[in-house]
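== Folding task for one protein ==

=== Format: two labelled lines per protein ===

==== Paired sequence and structure tokens ====
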Amino acid sequence: MVKSLKHIALLALAVCATAVAVTSCNDNCMGNSSGIPLAAFYEDGQSVSVLNLTVYGIGAPNDSAIIRNKAATQVYLPLRTSTPSCEYVLDYNTEGMPNDTITFNYDIIPYFESRECGAMYNFDIKEFAYTQNAIDSISIPNSMITNSDVVTIKIFMK
């Protein structure tokens, strides 16, 4: 009887070890499940922090702010998978400084990453527009937005 319990315990231990080994090998998904553009702020070619910044999407669900009244050198600007365009407001929270608006028009590209990671979305930015109150210019060196965590939008401030 004791010998049988030892064999059962060893078998259970082997099954658990195998399950842990198999599941740990399949956990190769890292990063975002869809492309999210990372915007960075620059002035005179150097990274700069924009003080008291609030960023929110126009018509975004719940109109929630991405950041609210904080200093920021970078900000993620998620694109919607339900529409081929979106707009963001940059509110500088400074008396006499009007807000800026950035508009993106893009193609939504479903992308199958792998069996473990599943499907995700990439975005190909076709065109963009912006106001020039505090923004001098915007550069998007690579129009294809993937889930790589790199700066994809460069916002040059006046």
Notes: Residues 38-157 form one domain.
